[in-house]
Amino acid sequence: MADNKKNNVVGFFDSPIHQKRFEAAMDIWKDYPDAKHAMFNHSIFCQTYLPYRNPGDDATDWEHKQGSASLIIQCMKVKDPKTEKLIHLGLPYGTKARLILAYLDTIAIKNQSPIVDVESSITGFTKAIGLSNSGRDIKDVKSQLARIAASHITLNYLTEDQRSLNVNFTLVKKYDLWFPKNEGQRVLWPSYIELSNDYYEELCARAIPLDMRALAVLKNSPMALDTYRWLAQRLHRVKKGGQFITWKAMKDQFGSDYGAMKDFKRKFRLTLRDVKLVYRDARIEEDKNKGFNLYTSLPPIPKKTVVFLNPPRDS
Asked: Which domain holds residue 19?
């Protein structure tokens, strides 16, 4: 019996979720990624991240720093047309907010427009980001869409020559917030979103191509999504000879929710295992429990298969 378990691939994984991720990864390996699998995300969201969990409905701001990059989110109030009162919708968080941002970026890139219509395609929307069309998933998507639209998001980063770019620009310029007629439906969500000009221009210039199948496989783990996106934008830029990153630096970037280093190490090792299943060309190796060596790797979506837009110009 023990020998059979060793020979069974299910026995190699510690949960049914990991087994499903392995099976999905095999499908990715059989069909090498190309343009039809591409989704996009602004490079800043591949370096700095939203909260893993709800920081609290009363929380009004959040900041995440990573090296020279910084993400600051402020929860803005919106007016309920029925009560005429200002209300907070809360800060965006978790896996769905991450997938939604990638979806918004992707539609803007593919349609060559900063305006994204979400009202007419909520079913296709949830399918595109790897979710079901269950009432719960759609409710969560609507809630996170509204939180994103009603948040003031500031992105900052320094270039290698120490120039400061993208200081204090917001993600969403304009949105139409839909208020349900049914009083029992308190989920507010935007029928369309118009990305700010600054964000849209930078997105067109600095979009990172990701494999939508990989995002779907990792959709249940915010840490896995963050790790995958970070490697996607980082590994192809590693210089010859590689780069070493300490465990402390990894914890600062991905382990804000973990107190003890040993707990973070255990979680991150499992997460990295899943990420490397879907990003097969990722060359990242642990170095004697001190940290990780990064080596130049092919991106998840080959650049030659993706046509990047030039930053749009004002007419």
From this structure: 2-32+221-298
